Amino acid sequence: MKTKKIVSLVLASMLAVSSFAACSTTTTDGTTTAGGGGDVETSAEGEKEIVDFTMFAAMAGKEKDADNEIMQIIAEKTGVRVKETWLTGQDAGEAIGSIIASGKLPDLIDGGDGCVTLYENGLLVAWDDYLEKYPNLKEMYTEQEWDQFRMDDGHIYWANVFGNSYDHNTATGHNGEAFWIQVRVLEWAGYPKIETLDEYFDLLERYAEANPELPDGTTVIPYTCLCEDWKYYCLENAPMFLDGYPNDGCVIVNIDAGQSNPKVVDYNTTDTAKMYFKKLNEEYAKGAIDPDFATQTYDEYIAKLSTGRVLGLCDQYWDFAYSIMGPFATPLTATDGTEFRLDELGCDYVPLGLVAEKGMDQQWHSYDDELNCSSGCAVTTSCSDPDLAFAFLSALLDQDIHDLRFWGIEGVDYLVDEETGLYYRTEEMRENWKSDSYKAKHSCEYSYCPQWLGMSKDGINRMQPGEQPSEFIESLAGPLRACFEAYGVGTYSEFIGSKVVVNAPWYPLWSWSNSLGTDTEGGIAWKDMGECKHYWLPTVVMSSNFESDWAAYQEAYAACNPQAFLDEAQAAVNERLETAKSFGWTEPA
Amino acid sequence: MSDISNVDFERIKHKKRMATEDIIFYIFNTAFLLLFAVVTLYPVLNTLAYSFNDGNDAVRGGIYLLPRRFSLRSYQEVLFERDGIHQGAKVTVARTVLGTLTSLAANALLSFILSRKKFLFKSSLSLFWIITMYASGGLIPVLILFRYLHLTSSFWVYIIPGMVSAFNVMVMRTYMQGIPDSLEEAAQLEGAGYMRVFISIITPLCKPVYATIALFVAVYHWNAWFDAMLYNRFDPQYTTLQYELMKLLDSVSATTGGQGSAAQMTAANANTLTPITVRAAATIATMAPIIALYPFLQRYFVTGLTIGGVKE
Amino acid sequence: MENSISESKVKNPKKEIDINKPKFTVKEFKRQWVLVAISAVYVIYGIIFYYLPLVGWIMAFQKFVYRDNIIQAITGSKWVGLDKFKFLFSNNKFPIVIRNTFAMGTLNLIFSTIAAIVFAILLNEVRNKYFKKSIQTISYMPHFLSWIIVVAIVHDALTSTGIVNDLLMRVGILKQPYAFLGDPKLFWGIVTFSNLWKETGWNAIIYLAAITSIDPCLYESASIDGAGRFQKMRYVTLPGLRPTIMILLLMNVGNVLNAGFELQYLLGNGLVQNVSRTIDIYVLDWALDAKNMDYSLGTAAGIFKTVVSMTFIVGANYIAKRKGDDRLF
Prior knowledge:
The complex is a heterotrimer of chains A (589), B (312) and C (329). Chain A has 589 residues and is of the alpha/beta class. Chain A has two domains: 39-161 and 373-405, 3-Layer(aba) Sandwich (D-Maltodextrin-Binding Protein, domain 2), CATH 3.40.190; 177-364 and 499-582, Periplasmic binding protein-like II (D-Maltodextrin-Binding Protein, domain 2, 3-Layer(aba) Sandwich). Chain A has 26 helices and 17 strands. In chain A, strands 1, 2, 3, 4 and 14 form a five-stranded mixed sheet that branches. In chain A, helix 2 (69-78) links the parallel strand 2 (49-57) and strand 3 (80-86). Chain A is globular, with a radius of gyration of 27 Å. Chain B has 312 residues and is mostly helical. Chain B has two domains: 8-81 and 249-312, no CATH class; 82-248, MetI-like (MetI-like fold). Chain B has 14 helices and no strands. In chain B, helix 4 (84-115) runs antiparallel to helix 10 (207-223). In chain C, strands 1-2 form a two-stranded antiparallel sheet. Mean pLDDT of chain C is 84; it is low at 1-15. Chains in contact: A-B, A-C, B-C. The interface between B and C is large, with 96 and 92 residues.
């Protein structure tokens, strides 16, 4: 009978289940030392043994194929192959927590915000001795900077791999925040000098009136702003920059009394803040601001930008620029049947460092390297051979391997000019490096392992293709290049023309505020302030009675007890200053 | 029976009246159901359209029922270009089949026990299991427990812990309670023990609810990825299909709070942006087998299995 | 036996005697030994996998700091008693968050139950097999779409250039686009609608299965008695569905505080945050930031939810018992 068959099948599988469970094939015994990799495999030639390590980075990323070409080459040179896993569907804290609890740690890890927890659990290997052994690694930072990584027990447990320039900073882009404007708008007005909000919006309005549509009939949006979740900084922190201060993220640090006497100032209550929001309010009433700005999702925001309709926005480069590169290079059809491309139309964006008053200096762009000590690449106690791990990390900084990681294989991914020795790429090579599947099969950046920006050790090229001047210029569309020429600059970082300063010892303060918990009064205040602003900032912009709504906002804001937060911020600034002084920092003349 | 002619008359009158009522009802019902179907079908068609669209073009939005720029690229990427997908598919199929069978059996047996009116511990055992639906120790305690049970880094973590689910048990129990007691009593009179009753009497009559629960459990296993991540993160041989697909999707989610240095955010974003089309293709690829499975189960949703038992 | 029943009925005509109430005698025990033995296995299984982790609740009473060795972690963390709970309740946002969760959960419960039942009954009336099957298959497809996809569609439809504004302006109801997504008064409605859209077809599956278990003879005798279509629904179908409806209602009453995370998170924004934040979102925001990974707070919130859920369940179960309906336990 059919029933009998099904029943016997079911019973059989249940038996199978229990018998398999009984002789479990797993070998973990609940301790962490047995986890991780360390499997040894001999390569085909039998010369060098290749060790497989695992790595987890608490950030999003793409996994490489198992037979990735460059990964194999690097493995043969260094004796180590690393399988990277990335953050998916969780946030960093949860992921690190679950990894620790599961008892299975990878060999290498970048725990992001969770690095401190890993340290507190005694799961990381100290770098100190290995720094002496591997000069490549030691070279990453100065003594002073290394000291900033020291934890309470005096040892160093991780190294941040980003924002580190060899020799000098060669950034061509402006990765940070700015008021962006489409190149064609500047061109239409004859490449004027735009410094204030008034000039900026005035130009956007006039252009929109004169050119209300794109060739394919879509209407132009003069200005939009993203307010979603933590990305609402687009709307929220402009007052900090408008007053000429750098990106400390949560407060202004006023150094009128000298860098030894920093004073924390709340940028949410300044006159500039009121002026800025009042201006936005006026523009909104005129219809110059996207009516959906307050409720749009990130995807909708990118969709709007990628159509080329948006003339101006305030945001950080990495948040939008990469998503629109592809669409801007795609051919579209105009209403009259002709083809056009948005980048050739001049829709690319350039950064404007607006200020509150004409003539002021601004620090929208930071030309110095940033030091973020709160997270970095680390080796876990679960690694079977820490010495090999550190040797590997050090080898990654050898110039030939570094080039393999970021430039690729010579002849396949880049060519060398015989006379100048400069690396360059053909159009096809550049296209390849934009393709996900090519990168999965071929390229192996080990992007969360030690790396450099800046000049290559050969003194000619750059560590990263993106910073190679020739590559950079080549990748620009016509109108963008013309714009740079018209203003007499060659890169985004020159274009924005910020004041060149050496970063203050406490900079960037957002690395402190990001890690604020709710166990202090200031931390709670910070959360409350955030929620308050999330509601009130879009509301005052859209308000029909700005003065009364602004007053209501200030009242609600004050009720969040911001002083508690500011006090803690001041304490953090002072502490960082003291730490720097103890390592020999002196106030610049 | 006396007036046969009268009865006939009544019946005919009824039939005529019902004919007009019937037609009106059928029209409205059909129209309503069609409207409902269209409205519910739209998001699926929309996703389908995105999945067949070119990635760069799709970013601009504005795609509704048909792709604007046809491309099979997204499917290619989803189905063929990721290493882990094949292993994931194997593991997922295995856990779906095995998990559904074991879960069905385990849940059904418990439901049977709980549906027996005279069972001594009916109330307390039910309460015992109901509580499990609303009380949880949390992610970390469960993880630690599995670790000490040697269930992490293992395939069995997918099968064993989830075998009994209070919700499914309650649904099946209700259904079983609807089966007339007379059947059970008649069988017991003939000397059948409880197990015999379960296998030969109750189970054949429970096909609709078995099919329902089988569907629920199968869908759960098919879509599961979080457990693969939590318990088998560093064991790629136990990865599931959905986990591989999740890894493919844009994971620069909104929960990544706080800024990193601009350089770090650049690295993150430059590496990971996934077109909406890939997400759509992944969704369709996952949905399709389930949709295909359902008609196979539908034949169990048939009336008339309760009759033919015992004459009341 | 019979005498006692009729006697009891005369004595207490309103109270039903349950002849099948389990009798705790040794004889009965022996008769049922198979059932008892097997249920013992289930109890052990349940204890291992469901009750043992509840030891983790101790975290809610400590300032829990994770240590690799769980024993060390528990004994090493500082005991703070009810501090975490105090923090939860004293925070002025918590009542609002509970209100939101409760409101959306209840709305969802009521409407989705009604919608699923209505849909199942209407679908059951369809005579054509193929039409019925295809409608049913289509109806549960949105269940497989992730909330990210469904919310994207809903969100897009409600923007100032979306379908809804477009239609309303064409018909003349609106002169200017209305910002639906920024209006707190509409948020709960939009959430409920989205839930209905996505889950009605799937929720109806159970009811459809239950309808098939209704004895067709009942329909026939109803026909003979002259019942029309709607009367059959009222007197045959609905009563036949009643046990299923009641059990599902009971179980879902306990879930009212689990009103969700993803949907509200994706659909929410700064303007409506006062009505959109649910307990889960709140906990994630306040408890699970990376520096502290405040499991204690998260666990405390979890315990709170469990206590409330169980209270509802026990209460609802008691009501069902009194009314003589099917009950959970």
